[in-house]
Specification:
With about 100 residues, this protein is mainly α. The chain contains 5 helices and no strands. The longest helix is centred in the C-terminal third of the chain and has 23 residues.
Length: about 100
C-alpha cells in the first residue's frame, strides 16, 4: 500500500464509499452492501474512538451501524434512520470540523 495507503482506509474516500454503500443498502435492503459499509467505516470509527471526545460515542455509533447491517432487510425506514443517526451526526460534525480549520 505504501506510505500514503492509510488515507484510503481512514480518509474521506473510505467515508464516502461507506456512505454510498449504506445508502445502497437501505435503498435495496441489501445486507451485503451494509456489511461492506461497515467494513469501510470500521477503521474511521476505530480511529475516532481513540480521541478523548469520542471515546464512547464512536464505538456506540459503529455498533449501531453493525446492528443496521444485520437488520436492514427487516427494519422499517424509521428504525434504519434511528440506527444510522449517531454515525451520521458524528461524520457530519467531523466534516464540519475539517472544513472549518
Amino acid at each position: 500500500m505504501g506510505s500514503g495507503g492509510w488515507v484510503l482506509l481512514l480518509g474521506w474516500p473510505a467515508v464516502l464509499a461507506a456512505v454510498v454503500a449504506f445508502s445502497l443498502a437501505v435503498a435495496r435492503r441489501s445486507r451485503t452492501a451494509a456489511i461492506a459499509g461497515c467494513l469501510l467505516a470500521g477503521p474511521m470509527f476505530s480511529y475516532l474512538s481513540l480521541a478523548p471526545r469520542f471515546h464512547w460515542i464512536a464505538p456506540v455509533a459503529f455498533g449501531l451501524l453493525c446492528i443496521l447491517a444485520w437488520r436492514v432487510k427487516r427494519s422499517g425506514r424509521l428504525a434504519v434512520f434511528l440506527l444510522a443517526l449517531p454515525a451520521m451526526i458524528l461524520v457530519a460534525w467531523l466534516a464540519y470540523a475539517v472544513l472549518t480549520q
